[in-house]
Write a structure and sequence with these properties.
Shape: globular
Radius of gyration: 21 Å
Structural class: alpha/beta
Distance between the termini: 74 Å
Number of helices: 10
Largest sheet: 4 strands, mixed
Helix content: 40-55%
Number of strands: 9
Strand content: 15-25%
């Protein structure tokens, strides 16, 4: 099912066309868990941190602004961009314009930042594979999927950068996800996947496509693009082991979320007794015996 953006509560599984702020505010009565939320429930984080972030949304960050702007120009949907004609944010006038833009729900950008992001979008449009993955004639941007987990019964949600209209010639649903980065070489991507939990996101979205859309064969492609000229693009697919590990971590997070929501208790690091901590391996001096 597809719902209109005006619907502010989600009580049935399905695909919903919602504004970004409605999705992130969580329109499910009683709450739902997203992929980013699942990461906050697992070490080195703790449930108490997840609960705090839920109740105290983080203030805007420049890196997020630039990412949102890139998504807007690449995917064709998203927040309105407010271009500020200034060289930096140091002046009082620039800060005032930025504050007014945020108050209006817009993303403020310096003129040179907007030009760079526009160049990124143009470079991606020249990439033979990426341009097909985000073809506006065969898909929709920023679609929100909601469903209940079969094992734990909790509500889950996912916001796809792009939802294709149909399956590929190989009989698979191919879901692309756009990421901006400093470097898009294979080694840098490997580190980014581990650091930001993109393997968890990949497994999470796979579950979404299966549960909500009914597809058994799902391919998930990350489209990485560098933020500096020549704005190189690298399309990758995670291997089976990475997806398996991501799904394992997600199941752990879902179990923690189900227990915490049922009990109303969101534990910190060591609420009842101290934990034993050892030294990292690199801090231990190797001792030779003579």
């Amino acid at each position: 099912m597809t719902a209109v953006a005006e619907r502010l509560e989600v009580t049935e599984p399905g695909v919903y066309d919602l504004p970004d702020e409605v999705y992130h505010a969580d329109p499910v009565p009683g709450g739902s868990l997203s992929s980013s939320g699942a990461k906050l429930l697992l070490p080195p984080n703790v449930p108490a941190l997840y609960r705090w972030r839920l109740d105290h949304p983080a203030p805007p960050k420049r890196e997020y602004d630039l990412g949102h702007a890139a998504h807007k120009l690449v995917l064709g949907t998203g927040p309105t961009l407010a271009v500020v004609d200034a060289d930096s944010w140091r002046t009082k006038a620039a800060k005032q314009e930025a504050a007014e833009a945020r108050a209006a729900g817009e993303v403020p950008l310096l003129a040179h930042e907007h030009a760079e992001i526009k160049a990124m979008a143009e470079a991606l449009a020249r990439h033979p594979l990426a341009v097909r993955l985000f073809d506006p004639a065969h898909g929709r941007a920023e679609q929100s999927l909601f469903w209940q987990d079969d094992e734990f019964g909790v509500w889950r949600r996912a916001r796809l950068d792009w939802l294709p209209d149909g399956i590929s010639s190989a009989g698979r649903l191919i879901i692309p996800d756009y990421k901006t980065c400093d470097r898009a070489d294979a080694e840098s991507i490997r580190k980014a996947v581990a650091r930001y939990g993109y393997h968890q996101q990949r497994a999470w979205y796979d579950d979404a496509a299966r549960a909500v859309l009914g597809y058994e064969q799902v391919a998930f492609l990350f489209v990485f693009q560098e933020r500096t000229a020549p704005y190189l693009v690298h399309v990758v697919e995670l291997d089976v082991e990475a997806v398996r590990e991501g799904r394992h971590l997600n199941r752990q997070a879902l179990g923690i979320y189900a227990e915490c929501t049922a009990t109303g208790t969101w534990p910190g690091y060591s609420d009842h007794e101290p934990n034993l901590v050892d030294l990292p391996r690199w801090a231990i001096t190797e001792r030779k015996t003579w």
